[in-house]
Structures are given as C-alpha cells and as structure tokens.
C-alpha cells in the first residue's frame, strides 16, 4: 500500500527539493563563472587534495564523489586534458587506476576555493541561525544514515 505524503510532508519535500537544486545550481554556475570549472570537477579536486599523497583509486574516488565510475572516468579525462589530474596504474592491482592531483590542479583548487566557500557561506549558512545549522546537520546525517542502511 502506498504511503502518500500528507500536505505538510508534500510542502516540505517540495521546499527541500527546490532548495537543494537551487543551491547546487547556483554554486555550479558561480564556480563555472569564477573558476572555469563545474562543481563536479571541483569536488574531484577537493577529494584528491584531502587524500594521502593527493591520490585515490578511481573506484574509491567515484564512491566518494557519489558518481558512477563511467561519469567519473569522463570527468577525470577532462581534468587530465587541463593538466589538473593524471592517471597512473595502481601498484597493487593491475586492473585498477589511481587519479593523482597535479601541482597545477592543486594551484587551481587553491584559486577556486575562496570564491566557492564564500558562495556556500552566502547561499547556505548566512540564511540560517546557528541553531538551524545544527538542525540541518542532524537532519542531513539522519537522511544519509537511512540511505546507507537501506542499501
């Protein structure tokens, strides 16, 4: 039996969907304009910058970015063309590859980060009280937990 959303749940769902789409679209548009890269590429550079030796297995990077392996492979190919990432064979698995953040990629990330962080602050955190920030964190953690446990 279908558990239909009541009016309050429907309004909440629509507000959540609209807010998350608008936030991500705005951040993506700003990154494109200010740094010349889409948010998906920025996310890859961030993940690599935080990884040991600035490298990750392609499969782990795809999981970390919430991306399919084919989509990530295409994005990494574009980042390779820009000289921001390079691929190399995985030393422990002949079939695997590792994405490595280049010095140029790290430099581009450092240039893009201040504008992106300002956008996140302006469009998300400035709109919320400190209590709402804490609540948003708890809500987001609960949603992620439910999704991961439901897999």
UniProtKB/TrEMBL annotation:
It comes from the Bacteria. GO terms for molecular function: DNA-binding transcription factor activity. One of its GO terms (biological process) is response to stress. Residues 9-145 form the HTH marR-type domain. InterPro entries: HTH_MarR-typ, MarR/SlyA-like, WH-like_DNA-bd_sf, WH_DNA-bd_sf. SUPFAM superfamilies: Winged helix' DNA-binding domain. PANTHER family: MARR FAMILY REGULATORY PROTEIN, TRANSCRIPTIONAL REGULATOR, MARR FAMILY. This is MarR family transcriptional regulator. It comes from Asanoa ferruginea.
């Amino acid at each position: 039996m279908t558990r239909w959303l009541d009016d309050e749940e429907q309004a909440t769902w629509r507000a959540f969907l609209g807010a998350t789409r608008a936030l991500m679209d705005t951040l993506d548009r700003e990154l494109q304009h200010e740094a010349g890269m889409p948010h998906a590429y920025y996310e890859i550079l961030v993940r690599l910058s935080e990884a040991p030796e600035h490298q990750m297995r392609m499969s782990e990077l795809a999981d970390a970015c919430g991306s399919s392996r084919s989509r990530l492979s295409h994005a990494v190919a574009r980042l390779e063309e820009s000289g921001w990432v390079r691929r190399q064979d995985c030393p422990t698995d002949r079939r695997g590859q590792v994405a490595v953040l280049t010095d140029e990629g790290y430099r581009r990330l450092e240039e893009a980060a201040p504008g992106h962080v300002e956008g996140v602050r302006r469009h998300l955190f400035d709109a919320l009280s400190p209590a709402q920030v804490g609540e948003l964190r708890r809500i987001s953690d609960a949603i992620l937990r439910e999704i991961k446990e439901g897999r």
